[in-house]
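Box 3.1 A note on notation
Throughout this textbook, protein chains are presented in two layers. The first layer is the amino acid sequence; the second is a token string describing backbone geometry. Keep the layers aligned when reading.
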Amino acid sequence: MAIENFLNALLYFAVSAALMLAMVRFFFWVTPYNDAEEIHKGNAAVGITLFSQMVGLGIILWSAISHNDTLAETIVWGIFGSLLMMGSYLIFEWLTPKLPVREELRKGNMAVAWIVAGIFITLGLVVAACIS
């Protein structure tokens, strides 16, 4: 029984890590700059944004794991929740045309980075509640 629980935990962890990496990759794809390059250059604004995105995704995955009985349900709700968070963020950007978020992040604007961090973490919490 203990070995089965251990293996089950490893499986859920592996699937969650893969999902998080896929969503981070998606985020890299939608930004008009090279995230890895910006972070390598020390752009803290991009780093904070990535950090908060991972926190938001982690909250969503925690909810998906905690509130579902099977790995398949966890995957479905994890993907749905992650897409919902990312879509909501993109809608925020679309609704705020006077604030060129991506360009400001590329320039290292820390005020925008903290706003984006708040959005990602808040969306993670709200989406987690919605999928639980």
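The mean pLDDT is 92. Residues 2-30 form the longest helix (29 residues).
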